[in-house]
Amino acid sequence: MSAAVVTEQDSPGEVDVVDVRDRADVRRQVKLVVVFAIVAALLLWFALDINDPTVKYITGERVTADDRGTELNGLNLVWGCLGISVIALLLAAVNRIPRGVLGTVISILVGIAFFVGFIVWSYADQTTLVIANPLPGTVKLATPLVFGALAGCLCERAGVINIAIEGQFLTGAFFASVFSSMFYSAEMGLVGGILAGVAIASLLAVFAMRYHVNQVVLGVVLIALATGLTSFLLSQIPDDPKIKGYLNEPLILAPMPDANMPILSPVAETLTKIPVLGPTLFNQTLLVYIMYVSVVFVTVLMFQTKWGLRVRSVGEHPKAADTVGIKVNRVRWQAVLLGGVFAGLGGAWFTVGSTGSFDQDASAGNGFIALAAVIMGRWHPVWASLSALFFGFMWTLQSQLAFLGKMPPELLRASPYLATIIAVAGFVGRVRPPAADGEPYTKS
Amino acid sequence: MSTDTTTPEPAKAPEQPKAPAKRPPMAAADWLPSVRTTLAAIALALVIGAVLIAFSNEAVIKSLPYFFSYPWDFFREAGSAVGNSYWALLTGSVGSGHAIGITLVRSAPLICAGLGVTLAFRAGLFNIGAQGQLLLGALAAGYVGFTWHLPPGIHLLVALLAGVAGGALWGAIAGVLKARTGAHEVITTIMLNYLASALLIYCLGKNAFQRPGSDNTQSPPVFDSATFPTVGNLHLGVIVAFLAAGLVWWLLNRSTLGFEMRAVGANPDASRTAGMNVPAVYTTAMVIAGGLAGLAATMGILGHHDSLSPTMAGTIGFDAITVALLGRATPLGTVLAGLLFGALSVGGVAMQASAASTPKELTQVLQALIVLFVAAPALVQGMLRMKDTDSNKTVMAKGWGG
């Protein structure tokens, strides 16, 4: 679409139409055609491979005795998905896929079509298994990633590289567990997580801004420090069940409808009754609700407020910001510490938000995935959160499909990471970080 | 070591075009402050470690409630706990020939993998993928080691090369993706780490990799003909590791390729303008970096008759990053840092076994603190009131783009 059409109208009788297309545009078209063609071909194969098109599905997350699923002819669904991808393929072939939001929507539609077809194909020809709603699990698993991604966006938009998300997760998880156990309250666990996240963030800030330590180095070191400290402290907690109960046996956040919170719980209970989306969005813990609010909060803060403008300006051009009277390092401190709050909440998910007591390496590399989400989302809180959701979806999907036997489980287990590589190499490509990201600023 | 030992980034290439060949002999005063700061950083980390030891020791904690009546008890217990722990750390790692041997063997893979991270770092690439490259190297070296039948010596050499090739292949993927599509190497190497571990587990599930008569996910041990010859508790791999360090030093400081890598690392745009093929340099750097990580894997798998298992690499790949950072991305620094980290991890076990029974996790904390303080010379000098010698040469950090 961006092909420039140059017409020379001023020489009458002789109209030259020169169609100039730059190479990037051609490559984009080729890329889209190839990808859509692959998707269409796979969907066609799915459709032809299905013998017994009847699949059963439920809208809940787990199959219960009184809900054995509704039957559905999956084949029609696959044909429909094939139709969507063929239309997209034709549009791409004649180069009619617009750039910008609409183009992205078309790509996402094709992506969804592929996944729907894939799920139906996976569950077809299986008599007993029921498609469970993967979305509640998606939101659940994506929660820490979204928090981590928000922390990453805040720091890096202000010009401080934050590789240490994993370290913030670890300490957050540990102290959330300790606080929750000590105060006998899961909500206090969140406070503990926040404090720990902010503590690591302030280390990041002090070494990055005061001592000008290379921030990539710093991030790696802080992860090492957090890993060492949490496992050291964990080894200090005695096995004596009486003492351990006060230190590492936290209360776990319950899903909101069961949590008996005043006002909020009844509201959540009502909202949960909405089909499909209800259990996805509202049968969740307090932490997930905080996550929704946080995404909106950070986005508005960053793009609609004066403070957000300052944060972005110190990340892009600190000198210019300084010239107009913005205190560069103060704004950066604020952004990094606020990021610490979210990273700490993300860390709390690993203990009080899901499994309970802290174990060595509880965050299991999720901080790195959150970092990938930040870069995939091009340092934008909403896109980064969507990237995080994509991860959550892939994880949920692979755990649901693992015992179907249609795909080798090892391949399924690797699929989130494979998908990320393909997404980053194929679609995101060269990203442009905030211009001053990683450069300490000294007033001269 | 010249002035650029104070920066993990390469010396700014455009400023010293003929630098590698004709560098003036360095004056002692050039590197002395840097060594002094590093030693001070280690000392500072040990002090903080001492506090942690004291307050994690049972006898010390018991003496706390009556601290104000008998303060001496507290100091005596704390002193003995710290003294015992650090003495065990020291003797356990370098106290005897045997201990030094274990330390060297432990350091070898750290040095190799650290060199890989160092090399990539100098080319402006942040290689988080040493772990994955290591796993692939182990997979390849192990497979050759326990399935092929070759004469001794040749078998070892082939297994060694297979390991290097395996790591190089995994590094190449990230390099090619970076060069061709601009995909950020931090993301791709992280993902490749997970893929490598998935691949390893997949392979271990296959018959070709199964130890006969065992239900564990474990391969048969490597044949004798493919293991490094040993002298006492040392094996030949240690020497290979030091040779690799020499090679990397030569590559970075004396070869054209190394010059190109450092130039691209310092400023890719300027290098492109100067006619260098930046994507090719990225790819080559990642291939060599991966190969070095693969070599690190052979230290483990071919060093002591090991078999492949999902957890065999431990966290060597990640420790390698800290090693490279502590070594300020120079080959010599990486070797020294690798030796230090090897000694700490060996000594940590002795520390846990000592009378003070300080948990060995403490050494992890020490490692991180040392790197942190070394990276912040201004902090160390400020705290110890040292003369402010090179604080204005503090590393100016760089961004994602390298």
From TrEMBL, chain A:
The chain crosses the membrane at residues 30-48, 77-94, 101-123, 135-155, 167-184, 190-209, 216-237, 286-303, 335-356, 368-393, 414-431. It is found in: Cell membrane. Keywords: Cell membrane, Membrane, Sugar transport, Transmembrane, Transmembrane helix, Transport. It is a multi-pass membrane protein. GO terms for cellular component: plasma membrane. Pfam families: BPD_transp_2. This is Simple sugar transport system permease protein. GO terms for molecular function: transmembrane transporter activity. The keyword Ribosomal protein does not apply. The keyword Transmembrane applies. The lineage of its organism: Bacteria, Bacillati, Actinomycetota, Actinomycetes, Propionibacteriales.
Automatic annotation (TrEMBL), chain B:
This is Simple sugar transport system permease protein. InterPro entries: ABC_transp_permease (IPR001851). Residues 8-25 have a biased composition (Low complexity). Residues 1-25 are annotated as: Disordered. It is found in: Cell membrane. It comes from Nocardioides ginsengisegetis. It is a multi-pass membrane protein. One of its GO terms (cellular component) is plasma membrane. The chain crosses the membrane at residues 35-55, 99-121, 133-150, 156-177, 189-209, 234-252, 280-302, 308-327, 334-353, 365-384. Keywords: Cell membrane, Membrane, Sugar transport, Transmembrane, Transmembrane helix, Transport. It comes from the Bacteria. One of its GO terms (molecular function) is transmembrane transporter activity. Pfam families: BPD_transp_2 (PF02653).
